[in-house]
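Narrative summary of target 7.
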Amino acid sequence: MTNKINIQSKKSKMSNEFYKLGIAILFLITVMLYTLIDTQGMLFLAFVTMVGGYMALNIGANDVANNVGPAVGSKALTLTGAIIIAAFFEASGALIAGGDVVSTINKGIIDPNLITDSNVFISIMLAALLGGALWLNIATAVGFPVSTTHSIVGGIIGASLASGSWDIVNWAIMAKIAASWIISPVLGGIVAALFLYIIQDRIFHQEDTLESAKKVVPFLIAIMGFAFITYLALKGFKKIVKLDFTTALLIGAISSIVTYLIIKPLILKASQRLSNEKADINQLFNIPLIFAAALLCFAHGANDVANAIGPVSAIYDTIQSGEIAKNAAIPLWVMVVGALGIALGLAIYGSKLIKVVGSEITDLDQTRAWSVAMSSAIVVIIASTLGLPVSSTHIAIGGVFGVGYLRYYLYYKYKDEIEGVKAHHIKSINKKLLKWNNKLTDLEDENERTQLLNRMAKKEERLKKVKTSGEIEFSKKEMKKLAKIKRKQYIRGKMLTKIITAWLITVPISGFIGGIMYYAISLM
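Modeled conformation, tokenized:
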């Protein structure tokens, strides 16, 4: 009976995967057919646009999880609700604030002035797009949250090197991108841990947590208003209106004051229905978390849609003008392809990475998830001030790990875990005493009986001490087991290893695939 249920479950899962694949293929075929009509049968451009749609699907499936994963993990949003909100705001960000012109050389990683042949440039752009998209597809399939920007950068480098010129790659920019592998997660972890520490210290470690929450939460949400409006001014709307850093900060400061005035009475009203329980206090962060997820998705859609449609627009512009495009105009329908691709990729394949970010690294509640969301906005502001290269993916994942490690160090003596090991310790002593007692009846040698009785007396004395004082002298084996249990509860070490490995290999692997794609395109 069990085997029959398992077989049915596997069939249902396989059917679901085919259904998802069918939707993705239908989207890509539709994109290709529309392009053929729009370009009057230019098959190459239809293929290029389809590849751009494929890249957009992969961006949605992988990168968006960083924005909504913590909210889902904390149960502030359901998985379905998160996907709907994220799809809407990602698409809105791409269409409203994605801009009508895009830089074709991502992050200035290569110098277009050193490329003399437009066919070589077109081949590099297409190969880079394929390299980045294929690596993102692989990473999503195995559950690696990686940077889409780094994926496309790796594809550009690999294709450029395959074209035969080492000099066209800007290695100084590449060094900055490599530096972001450390800068982004470290800053993200520190900022997220700092916010969580403030919440723990100023609310949950106070005698009257609800009264403390009434005072502290409005200030925290006001800071959130400042951070996210400044973040959107700097990143979300930069292609609509260019604001300098001081102006963005001023807008953010005004927004924080307005936010405080609006939120203060709402918190006081909501708190009338709440108790001092931690779960109740956490509810105050539900709506702010949903706003944070939506705003992060909007900014992400506005920025990262260029990773899918930038190379497509570059190829279009180069073919039409005959000159290598440094900045390319984006046709509206190409922007729509990018926006819909990101939204669709998230809807059909995003759940896997959302679960990884939301629950498989550390357990998140609303305050922890809110701290991670805050780190995503604050670190971008800090980086903009200092001119540091950062990755939104790395910031968010670093924030989740930062929260996990803070939990571990703040609660390393967590009661339930120690009680569990203590109970096991007492059980093992009782088991030993029972075994020795059974053995005692079979012993006829007086000396052996005396030795065993002495050992039993020591064990009984130890058991009595544990029960009366609660103090346990753990063995080395028990200490190791306790440490392992505690670490596992607060942070999944294997996930840390997997994610860091994925980050380190993203540029080399997408570069390798991009290089192979360049050779294949050249042969064609």
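The longest helix spans residues 2-38.
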